[in-house]
Structures are given as C-alpha cells and as structure tokens.
Design goal:
six-stranded antiparallel sheet; alpha+beta; 306 residues; 12 strands
C-alpha cells in the first residue's frame, strides 16, 4: 500500500484546502471530478517536475459508508466541545489537500476539480494558505515544532499499520480553521506571549516545566500514553490571511489514532476534567472542524473505479 502523496513529505510553500458537501453531485460524478483532478495533477507534475505537486483526498464518515463496505477501526465524526470555550463541528463529505511550491498550480488543481461541477456542490471552505517566513504561524511563533521530521517517524505517526488490512497506509484527518484576533494578541509583550504558548518566540524552545504555566498551549496539547510517552500527530497546518483582518491558521493533522486528537481537544477546551483550558483560545477562535479518512492510493483507486 502507498500513502497519498501529500501526507508524508514536509509541507510545501503553498496549499489549498477544499471542504465540500456533495449536495446535487452523485457519487459517480464525484468519481469523475476526482479523476479530472488527478489527471490534471499528473500532467502538471510532468510539465513542472520541480513544483513539488502533491495531493490527498479524504472522506467524511457518512460518505465513506456509501463508498466502501468496510470502515477503519476508530473512524467516526468529530464531537463538538462545550467547555470554557465552544468548538463547533461542521461535517463535510470530501476534504481535498492540494500542495505545491507554486500558488498558481494549487489554483489550477482546484479549478480542475470544480470544472463542470460548481453548481452541484456546496463549498464550505476553500482556504488559500501559505508558508509564513520560517514556518511560523501569524502569531509569530513557529508552528509544528514537535512534528516528527524523518520519513519513518512521520509514517509511524500518521499511517494505519499493516494489520489494518485494506486500510493500511491510510490516515485519519482532522481539519479545522482558527481565526486569529491579532489586534488583541499584539497587545501582549513578547514574554507574555511566550507564557501563553509555552515556548520562546524566536528560537521556539519549550519553557522549563517550573516556569511554563499549566494552561500554556504546549502544556495543554501534549498527550501521553500510559507509559508517559508523548503521542504524536503529523501537522500540515498553514496560515492564511488578507489585509482586511481575515487571518488565522488552517489546522490540519494526519494520524493513525483519532483518540489522540479527542484527548488533545478535551484538554484544550477544558472538558478533560481538570478544570484547565488552553489560554491561546483567548486569542484564536475555532470556526469549524471535522474528521475524515484518507485511504491509501490503491484503495482510493479502487473506490474511484467502482
């Protein structure tokens, strides 16, 4: 089995994230639109071999049940959080991750998918994202510092193992957009921002436990197993923004185990039972969120040809 091309490599400089409900688009038509996307992708890879063109397509649990007779263990829909802050859920049918070193190619691939189907689908989001300086969020802090860097480690974190059978080398996906209140954030001095994040701003060094607040972002998003080992996810998050103030982060994670994200979100939003929430939520607002499954290339091809 082979993972879809965008999952394991390091993030490209540009990405588009498409969040779609089928509305009037039939499954047969969806298959045709995805084939159109992939044929355009393959042609552009040949024409622009240095453009780092990569894609992944994932499906929500409701649509997956219509596409395939079996479901990977642990696949479900995201649950909303109602703690110190509210985290909404916006279920969708299809999530498409397009990445390249070039913004124009991301645009062309988006156009290829929508060609002939624009009036048949409901586009919940089409988010144009970019690498910001040296991999930073627009808060100024480096995003994904703890991401596994080596291919084997990234695969171990993101991909379902061989014993998952037909679902091996697939990956669960968590996609969620956060809107940032940068005006409020910028009123904090750097040392206060570092207390919120739990890291230094310039070098992204985690603060020592004796000075790191228990409600720091780093402290709330660390999930450990029974033996005290940190349970990782593979982040592909990228910022977005315009000059008018619509700006934030499209948080995207691939994982072999959705329970890690369930625990992480409960710790962030104050529903884990310890009465603590992530202080970063005073400055960023979740706008949506959902879980998906990205099958292996082989299983995706089988679905498209069925």
């Amino acid at each position: 089995m082979t993972a879809q091309s965008v999952i394991l490599p390091l993030p490209s400089d540009h990405a588009r994230f498409l969040v779609i409900r089928l509305k009037d688009l039939s499954i047969k038509q969806l298959q045709q639109q995805l084939q159109q996307l992939f044929s355009t992708r393959d042609r552009l890879i040949t024409q622009h071999p240095h453009a780092q063109i990569k894609t992944a397509v994932a499906f929500g649990p409701e649509l997956w049940a219509q596409l395939y007779s079996q479901t990977p263990n642990g696949f479900k829909q995201l649950e909303a959080q109602h703690g110190a802050f509210h985290m909404p859920v916006q279920p969708a049918d299809v999530f498409i991750h397009i990445a390249s070193a070039r913004a124009d190619i991301c645009f062309a691939l988006s156009q290829a998918f929508f060609e002939g189907a624009r009036d048949l689908v409901e586009v919940l989001d089409e988010r144009v994202c970019f690498r910001y300086f040296d991999g930073r969020d627009i808060t100024g802090f480096i995003d994904g510092t703890e991401n596994p860097q080596f291919p084997d480690d990234r695969a171990e974190t993101a991909l379902l193992p061989e014993d998952a059978g037909v679902f091996a080398d697939g990956s669960f996906v968590f996609a969620q957009r956060y809107a940032h209140n940068l005006e409020k954030w910028k009123k904090l001095k750097v040392d206060a921002q570092e207390q919120v994040m739990g890291r230094t701003k310039l070098e992204s060094i985690e603060l020592d436990d004796d000075v790191k607040p228990e409600n720091a972002h780093v402290a709330r998003t660390v999930v450990e197993d029974e033996e005290g080992e940190e349970m990782e996810i593979l982040r592909h998050s990228l910022p977005y923004g315009d000059g008018k103030g619509d700006q934030g982060l499209f948080f995207l994670a691939y994982t072999k185990d959705l329970s890690i994200l369930d625990t992480m979100l409960a710790r962030m939003f104050g529903t884990s039972g310890d009465g603590v929430h992530d202080r970063l939520l005073h400055f960023v607002t979740p706008m949506d969120g959902a879980y998906y499954f990205a099958p292996s290339e082989e299983l995706l091809e089988e679905i498209l040809e069925s």
